[in-house]
Amino acid sequence: MDDSYNKNGNLPRSIFVTQEDSRKDLRINIESVLSDKFMVFLAFLMLPIILLPIFLEFPQDILLFFEICDLIIIIIFITEYSLKLYAAKNRWKHFRNPWHILDLIIITLPFIEIFQLVGINISSSAPLLLRLLRIPRALAVGGRTMGSRLRSQEEVSEEIIAEPEMKVRVIYGNLKSIRDDIKLEDIKEILIDNSQDWIDIYYISEKDIEVISNILNISVLHMQSKLNEEIYPHIDYLGKISMVFLQSSLLQYPEKNSTYLTIPRTGFLIICYGNNLITISKKKLDIFEKVIESSKNRFTKEELVVSVLYGIFEYVIKNYRAITTEIETELLKIENIPRQMIPKDYLERTFQFKKELTGLGSNLLHLKEVLNNLVQNKVSLEGFNDNWKNLFHILYDEAIYLNDSVQNAKENLLSIIELHINRTSYEMNKIIKILAVITCLAIIPSMIGGLLGENLLDVPFNFYLWQIVIFVFIGMFFIVYIFVKLGWLKS
């Protein structure tokens, strides 16, 4: 599985994902500090600073205060614009955005004021023109204020994709004849017929569930709960009707740096209705196409229900087997990651992996119980005999094995997580020990240096530098000796 590795050090795909946007973290930090709400507040604050001196006369010290406040806010705007432009994923697109052009106008207009209207040399008209030039600044700041409000309320227009209409098809007894133009009202006639047929219903909606529930005389709430809620594989018995809920799983590796490994599950409902088998799902699943191909030549017309049911369970087990094998391979790669190449979000990714393994193990546990009920003939199936019982028993044994394998994989992953935590703690302890040794060694020259720096009167001893150095080395050697005996300097 060479595709499970990346080019930057052969790390497993579940642990390492190449970061598509290297400036994303920086952009998030900038947005959190210089948020849109904060910039709106500054824009509101700037409006009276710009407009009041135009219409009212103020003392020189107040005007100076206004100028300083205006300068500080402009510097913040320049900082915000520059940082966000630098951190943008697409800088040219960010620059062309109308709201960002407005930001550029706000930070550019003050510089035009500073240049004293180049080309106009009439000193008496300059102050008036400078004041008039503040009006477009005020309009730009007001536009920035309103624009931020509008921008925060903008909804990205998404294409509305119409839900596909419900489809009903009938696969007749030999599985070679398929009719896919069936209407809901035709289902009753098919169910009355004594021949064994497979009715496959997909792209089912809430409204369709109510209609089908009435046709099958099954509670609407009961069917809705099976198709809408994420529940585990199980069997419900409703008189002569048996409802089997199963899930098809898939191992998905993270595609972005912000996502984790997941094992999404797609549920579908199997209804054993007399001589007929009914499958209901919200999507068109490839599982049924593969079951049709695999089951065509291995049964008689009288064994359609049991054969199709076996084919579905066989496919689900095969699917879980592939996932389990891939998980075990992935764990071996995680276990062999060099210490220096472990990413910073290693624990988050492994904990998410463990969570998915827990869900997978629960699914297999319940699937095992469902197969056990079939082996014990608790579900009335037309054509079920000892041969089919043995075949279902093989699937039951494999479900037990896969469940045990997933539990072992979970334990292995927990051991890997625990090993990583213990390694980190051990390395931290080593650093603390080194700091403690250095601190203790530094205490001796520090104390002696401090004492020699004191103004000690009437000291009867005369010390030479070489004597002091010897005393310091003796003291430090004694400290090192103690640490060696305590085992702190061992690797």
Entry summary:
It contains 14 helices and 7 strands.
List the main descriptive attributes of the protein structure presented here.
491 residues, Four Helix Bundle (Hemerythrin (Met), subunit A), Beta Polymerase, domain 2, 2 domains, 7-stranded mixed sheet, 14 helices, 7 strands, 8% strand, flat
Question: If you had to describe this structure to a student in words, what would you say it looks like?
Answer:
With 491 residues, this protein is α+β, with helices and mostly antiparallel strands. The protein has 2 domains: 34-153, Four Helix Bundle (Hemerythrin (Met), subunit A), CATH 1.20.120; 167-425, CorA soluble domain-like (Beta Polymerase, domain 2), CATH 3.30.460.20. The protein is built from 14 helices and 7 strands. The chain has helices spanning 24-33, 36-55, 60-87, 91-96, 98-114, 126-153, 184-192, 206-216, 220-228, 286-295, 304-335, 346-375, 386-453, 465-486, and strands spanning 167-171, 178-179, 198-202, 234-238, 241-249, 265-273, 276-280. A 7-stranded mixed sheet has the order 2-1-3-7-6-5-4, sandwiched between helices. Strand 6 (265-273) and strand 7 form a beta hairpin. Helix 11 runs parallel beside helix 13 and helix 13 (386-453) packs antiparallel against helix 14. The longest helix is centred in the C-terminal third of the chain and has 68 residues, at 386-453. The radius of gyration is 38 Å and the shape is flat. The two termini are 37 Å apart. The model is unreliable at 1-9, 116-126 and 152-160 (pLDDT under 50).
